[in-house]
Amino acid sequence: MMRQKLFDKIYGCLLGVAAGDAMGMPSSLLPADEIQRLFPEGIDSFLPAPPGHMIHDQMVAGEITDDTQQTLLLADLFLETGSFTAEGVARKLIAWADRINAFDGLYLGPSSMRALKLIKDGADISKTGLIGDTNGASMRISPVGLAHPGDLEAVVTDTAEVCKPTHNTNIAIAGAAGVASFIATALACDNLEECVDAYFYGVKAGMQRGGKWTGASIQHRTEWALKLVRSGKTEKDIWSNLYNYIGTGVATSEAVPTSLALVVMYAGDPWQVIRAAANIGGDCDTIGAIAGSMAGAFAGADGFPEHVAPKIEEVNHLGLEQYANRFVEKLVLADD
Ligand SMILES: [Mg+2]
Predict the structure, then answer these.
(1) In angstroms, what is the span from residue 67 Cα to ligand 1's centroid?
(2) How far is the CA of 87 from the centre of ligand 1 (A)?
(3) Does the predicted TM-score (pTM) go above 0.70?
(4) pLDDT tens, 156-205?
(5) Distance 187 CA to ligand 1 centre (A)
(6) Distance CA 212, CA 224 (A)
């Protein structure tokens, strides 16, 4: 694989997480009609949180949230240790949540909050994630895709391991494995249909892992969402149908199908995808991060407008380019 191209795709994936997260930050967890009231022109650039936002009050334009922070924790784990272990994930998440006081308030999602508190109290991590079915696993999973270009079996195995402490349900693993499989395929492929096929492979394989839990089928909801985006309806009608019928909430079986649908709707153009996520309503920052991770891996960092990466770095100092370089080094070394 061309080293420069691999770098561009990995960088694009991480940039998609951060830019999607930051663009959806001001509208995060707001209903669609409330977003239209607060932002009558729509959100088509990085904006500050509206005053009094229930989670992001006072945050500035371009600022990222937990989605990007947790993604980089998983990237750190892989870059430091060369593998993903459930213990390593739990250790990283607990240290981070303690550092930023996330065990108080709404910053930490419901599955992670519940499970990490139990783990801190000494619970067995093979038990703590058995009812975790929300989208936190999918929002932070992209490093698993980045670690295994083209190797979907390894993606599914590592996804189940990463989900174990907090999201050890078939539903959460299916969503996360779908996203990570899309990314792992996009690193080595410029055909969107193949990446979508990989997503469905990951969803189906993920459903065989973890504890059994009930929820709407991610596979069937995604198929329905894809029919919707190919129906010829107007952009606004498709957004409203995704919001009302597929859903854009914190459930994995809402957020992940809608994210994949947005990627297909805009043929993998990451800026259009994350703009749609910021305006669609519901869990906008997380849908932006998930859809952005897939579109960014598909299109590469070159697929974003030029101002995006400098703005994200100026506000957040994440060093995403360095992260991408370190991934490439690790993957090229492992290949030799
Ligand atoms: Mg967030």
Answers:
(1) 5
(2) 23
(3) yes
(4) 999 999 999 999 999 999 999 999 999 999 999 999 999 999 999 999 99
(5) 25
(6) 23
